[in-house]
Specification:
Blueprint (H helix, E strand, L loop, with lengths): L9 H17 L8 E6 L8 H14 L3 E7 L5 H5 L4 E3 L3 H9 L2 E4 L3 H5 L14 E4 L16 H7 L2 E4 L2 H9 L8 E3 L5 H4 L10 E5 L11 H5 L2 H11 L1 H9 L3 E5 L8 H5 L8 E4 L6 H7 L2 E4 L5 H6 L4 E4 L3 H7 L13 E3 L2 H13 L22 H10 L3
Parallel strand pairs: 1-2, 1-4, 2-3, 4-5, 5-6, 6-7, 8-9, 8-11, 9-10, 11-12, 12-13
Helix pairs in contact: 1-4
InterPro entries: Glycerophosphate_synth, TagF_C, Teichoic_Acid_Biosynth
Keywords: Transferase
Pfam families: Glyphos_transf
């Protein structure tokens, strides 16, 4: 499954760059004075999530003794806008040269998308770099989907960080990762939020539905009649929802999944009165900022729900296609027993729970007491623990 399109001659160009970079890295005349650390996430398209939080931590706490680089998509502009230091364009010759010279590489999605494009075919050439997978969320909702190109990359990874012993058991027994490769350090991005921080009122609601692999190849007309789009449409066009938003002075921000780009205009065309429901693409807003500012979450199976649990904010899980979802992908959670928020199977139940939460100021998550079943650390030292674990393993 290709997450980014490639040109006809891209494989040849990549081969030439990789070959030249590999040999140059072997015959470099200058001795490497500092350890080189490469960090990347979100396919280089955004400075968000665990990878970016950990990168910022490394810059602030290890910038003197290490050369730390961020890998980014050259088609984006966020590096200049956010003044991210030592940023290297993915797919550039320098990118591949640093890949072979690096002491450590840290990625949130895939080495082949976050650190060095198409490197899965040449990963065997790099025997030096210690490679760490830090995930982009706690791996519980969706069962892992391993593509052909993922096999050598997963095998090559030296370490996989885990948010908790719960997640470690999933990666050990379900993913088949050897125990010596699993390190339990917490989730880096939790350091940004802080635990147990419910809002005083529930006015700002973040809405995010996760992706379905079955949507990749749909035409626009097929997508319009899909359960995914129709369920979204019915929520926001329901008269009871409109009344609730109006009477409660609620503001809903709908964050569209990054894979939703070709269908974004269909959501923006939804006729919603009042203007208090806004749709945003992945690259228009900061996920981290929205998690902090939102008072509650409406989702299906999104991993950002862990952040809301961590902060003790209410969550509604709208499991409109649970049977199909489990058949298509499967989950490590029992979606009938293990959810840490209100479970709504229908639009009626979504509205019922939203009314209950907003009209009675239920600002806390009533399932917060089970947060420690899934999350081990609530101390904002997740990045520190991760750095200690990584840099002592040589």
């Amino acid at each position: 499954m290709e997450l980014k399109t490639k040109g006809t001659f891209d494989p040849l160009i990549t081969f030439a760059k990789v070959t030249a970079a590999f040999f140059l890295s072997k015959f470099s005349l200058s001795k490497q004075k500092k350890s080189i650390v490469l960090v990347g996430g979100n396919l280089g398209e955004k400075y968000e999530d665990n990878a970016s939080v950990f990168h910022r931590y490394l810059i602030e706490h290890h910038g003197e003794e290490m050369d730390i680089y961020w890998m980014y998509d050259p088609k984006t502009s966020y590096v200049k806008e956010q003044r991210i230091p030592n940023a290297v364009a993915l797919g550039s010759f320098r990118n591949y040269l640093l890949f072979f010279k690096a002491n450590y590489s840290i990625h949130g999605h895939s080495i082949a998308y976050d650190i060095a494009p198409s490197i899965d075919k040449y990963i065997f050439l790099n025997k030096k770099t210690i490679m760490i997978h830090i995930s982009h969320g706690i791996e519980c909702f969706k069962k892992i989907l391993i593509q052909k190109e993922d096999v050598p990359l997963l095998a090559r990874c030296n370490y996989f960080n885990c948010a908790s012993e719960y997640e470690k058991n999933i990666k050990l027994h379900e993913w088949g990762i050897p125990e010596e490769k699993l390190i339990v350090t917490g989730m880096a991005r939790f350091d940004r939020f802080g635990p147990n921080r419910p809002s005083k009122k529930v006015k700002h609601i973040l809405v995010m539905f996760t992706w379905r692999e079955t949507l990749f190849d749909l035409s626009e007309q097929e997508f319009l009649v899909s359960d995914y789009f129709q369920s979204t449409l019915k929520i926001f066009q329901d008269k009871r929802m409109e009344a609730l938003i109006s009477s409660g002075q609620l503001h809903l921000k709908v964050m569209l999944h990054p894979f939703m780009k070709k269908f974004e205009h269909l959501f923006r065309d939804i006729d919603i009165s009042g203007g208090e429901v806004e749709f945003y693409s992945f690259d228009e807003i900061s996920i981290g900022n929205e998690i902090i500012e939102a008072d509650m979450l409406l989702t299906d199976y999104s991993s950002i729900s862990w952040d809301f649990l961590y902060m003790n904010k209410p969550i509604i899980f709208f499991t409109f296609d649970q049977e199909e979802f489990l058949k298509m992908r499967g989950s490590y959670l029992d979606l009938d027993k293990d959810l840490y928020g209100y479970k709504a199977n229908t639009i009626d139940e979504v509205i019922e729970f939203m009314t209950h939460i907003t009209e009675h100021d239920h600002t806390e998550n009533p399932f917060y007491t089970i947060a420690s079943n899934y999350i081990d650390y609530f101390d904002r030292n997740n990045c520190k623990r991760l750095a200690v674990e990584i840099f002592r393993k040589k």
